[in-house]
Amino acid sequence: MKDYEIKQDGDYSFRIKINSENSRPLYQSILKLCSVTIYDEESEALFITAETVETLKAYLFKNLQLKMSQSKCIKMIDELTKQMIYLKKQGYGFYGFDLNDIVVIDEDKFIICNSSFLLPIQDNLIWFYSPIKRPYFMDLEINKLTTLPSKIDYRCAYYSLGVLLVFCLLNNYLLVGNEQKSVEEVESILYPLKNTKIYWFLKRCLDSNIEKRVLLLI
To answer: Is 218 a member of any domain?
Structure first.
């Protein structure tokens, strides 16, 4: 069974069914922040009124350069950070992302629709009590968790988001095997964004000190 499914029920009606664990808080976050969604208790699914609903991966691949504009990326940053902050207040946090985890509505609204990498937060820590699936965009500290139970600061998600955004903006992946590219390499990659709002947002997300990471776009 897929982690979540998107089905088109009519010309302007789409249904999203989240099958993965911790779907309830994720549904609540989407309803809180996305006005075009309705939750149906009987089918346990979201109904969205829109012309198009697609994964972020499909959205990017429509553009042959596989790059997102800075203005569109700023909108995605705003919406995803609001969803992550809401979930944190409810006691949940992500430990990473895949491109298919994010859904794009009418090419202008971004929501996280996969709870496979969403776990409860206890005292600002995400605990792992069973083997996990590793996301493509993640804090490499995840790879160092080799015993169970293990724990990591919930702000690992900020780093994961930063790596995802760099991929969307610049079509560049900051991770190489079990290592991040060097500080010099990362700065070179980020150079086209130098001194923009997005650049400083990414620098805050990618801080090597996990306790200094913050979701702040100014």
So the answer is: no
What CATH number is attached to the domain comprising 38? 1.10.510.10
- State the CB neighbour count (10 A cutoff) for residue 39: 14
Domain count, the chain: 1
Q: What is the pTM of this model?
A: 0.95
pLDDT tens string 14-60: 999 999 889 999 999 999 999 989 999 999 999 999 999 999 999 99
CB atoms under 10 Å from CB of 50, counted, come to 18
Please give the structure tokens belonging to residue 24: 């309830």
